[in-house]
Specification:
Blueprint: H1 37-41, E1 44-45, E2 53-60, H2 69-74, E3 80-86, E4 89-98, H3 99-104, H4 115-136, E5 142-150, E6 153-156, E7 170-174, E8 186-192, E9 197-200, E10 212-215, H5 228-231, H6 251-254, E11 257-260, H7 266-279, E12 286-289, H8 291-301, E13 307-312, E14 318-327, E15 330-336, E16 361-365, E17 370-374, E18 380-381, E19 390-391, E20 397-410, E21 417-420
Amino acid sequence: MVLLAPPQDASISSYTPALKQYYLDIVPENETYKKRPFFALVPKIVTFEGLNSPLPLMYSNPQGVSASFSSALSAQEPTQLAAFTLTRAPKYGFATLQGEAYLAARSSVGSFVSSFATEIDNTFLEMTQDIHFDCYGDGSGIRSTVAGLVGLVVTLSNPTDVRKFSVGMSLELAPAPTGAARVGNCYVAAVNRSLGTITLSALPAGTVVGDGIYRLGSRGPQTNLQGLASWLPVGGPTSSAFFGVDRTVDSGRLAGIWLDARGSSVFDALITLATQIDVNGGTPDYCFMHPIKYAELVKQLGNQVLYENVVMEEYGNIGFKAVVVQTDFGEIRVISDSMATPISYNQWSAAGPTAYAGAYPLYMVQLDSWYLMSLDNAPHIIQDDGLFVIRAATEDAIQVRLRFLGNLGCRAPGYNGVAVV
């Protein structure tokens, strides 16, 4: 008997070894966050040289005034001045690429993207993103707090804080910005952006609900630049020296106007805060808030909403859409910024660091009173020795190093304010 092979048609599996893979001629999309309105709009000074930079202001005029000559003479007090002595806070970034990865992905023949350009560009993005995060912070580096803990899954105190975490980010957990951290570092193994949870690679010993979550190496009261939450603390400032100044002697002029508007509409909070800043001598022209509150404002305005495109020609026509709110002293452009997340902790608040936890801040500013001051661009590639790229000493790799040295400064805090809703 002759045994015949069973009949079989040529199938896709039989041709798999010979089939090509069809690739679209596209560049992979970078889905990390790129919108950074406050960072983009704040005026920049890139010549922050010397030991520090004093920002002087006058908060009280001479007081030798009276309807009585003798009283005016005896009541004389000179002009009261203060100077915020701005110092630089550092931040560093590294992009290291192994030699084979560099050579194999240096052109479109072998890769959709250049590995060299991609690693440098994306490290720039992450550095800029971190500076933008700091611009809204209190200088402590806290990104969120632990609200729930099941195994390695951490529920963040504010679900919107998930915007501050990425897979692979190294973390440290601690009960406060100062003192000992929990034993053992970890990194973000997974992120659930719908539920507002992160999964850790390991759980530092002693971690409990209420612990703060920090990027590794970025925890401490003076470790990072002092952001809007530092300059405009909700609840008023503590008496602790802020860049050398006790702001409690005139908190409205030295630490801005603050308003507890919880229970009010976003629109009512804006108008009330703008009025109080106007009374204090300021002319606010921008307000930054989280997209959730921005959407509420749009709904409240209804068919009276008026939009305007804020375009920055000096940065290649980068633009942001703003809702324009009319006031008696001018227009305020309200811009959505996803980094304006609810308050978790503020080391500078006289009401206590967690007094307004969970409330959304609305930062209203007179933009020309602010500066992001740095040594060279924020950030920039380190080329102190003239080299753009350096070779790793112990492996077949090349490396680019990035740096930021600077801080956020305000020459007139009283012309700005914050409301919580």
